[in-house]
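Good morning N.,

You mentioned wanting to compare the apo and holo forms, so I went ahead and generated the holo version with zinc ion. This is what I fed in:
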Amino acid sequence: MRDFSTDHRWLSINTATVRKSRGIEQPLTTIIETCAERGIRAISPWRDQVAAAGLPVISKLVKTHGLELSGYCRGGMFPAVNAAGRQAARDDNRRAVNEACELNAACLVLVVGGLPGALAGQAAHKDLALSRSQVHDGVAELLEYAKLNRMPLAIEPLHPMYAADRACINTMEQALDLCDALDPEKSGALGVAVDVYHVWWDPKLEQQINRAGQKRLMAFHVCDWLTPTTDLLNDRGMMGDGVIDIPKIRGWVENAGFAGYSEVEIFSAGNWWQRDAAEVLEICIARHRSAV
Ligand code: ZN
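and this is what came out, ligand included:
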């Protein structure tokens, strides 16, 4: 297992972590500058942040600073109530692949979607199996396009509490079953993003990380699980402040062959987004050394 205690060369910042500084939305250009000033070598930006700044602007800035993208957030949201909705998802996912290519991302992260309409507050139906079959078909189709463009797709299993509104793939086992169905040759085009927040509780986690192996382990996201967690989405903890044994899980992914960045991804409306972004990044660096 790599020693992170003396430097932060394998730290990546998911830009949602510093989406807000002192409660105020920050432009991605500012976030990139604040990261680069601290010797952070990699980021994982969100599409809305890139769109707000302009893809050419961000592409140039990333190159200027020699930054890598540990991933690009995000594609997915495949299920829809009708063919027009699925077509819209297909088109949008292709644009996400194109953007990820322009930014030279390591992978496009997929949050696959749940019951259509649920995210907006009104699910169109209760058929989770239907959503899962639409996810299968959506990933299958996108995979062809992604292969042509040489952009790996990383399915991110989300904690089961998001099954209705964000992702009906909820365990590593489920994600890897889909990978094996669509990419049995383990081509390197399809894999998983392991986010400790979503999978830390899973009794099969170590087994499934081993099953994934180097070919399927495409991203490693870290934060912590607070007790109590007061908001299902926006109360993630800083590494070291919660109950996840992050070094143990990092040991598993590295033993299985993963050698990429540890990407800090913290959504925290009440705490970290209320602090100064520069302070948050300094703490991310310190905790990357001591608690990851
Ligand atoms: Zn994640």
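The pocket of zinc ion is lined by residues 156, 193, 195, 221, 265 (CB under 6 Å).

Happy to go through it together on a call whenever suits you.

Best,
F.
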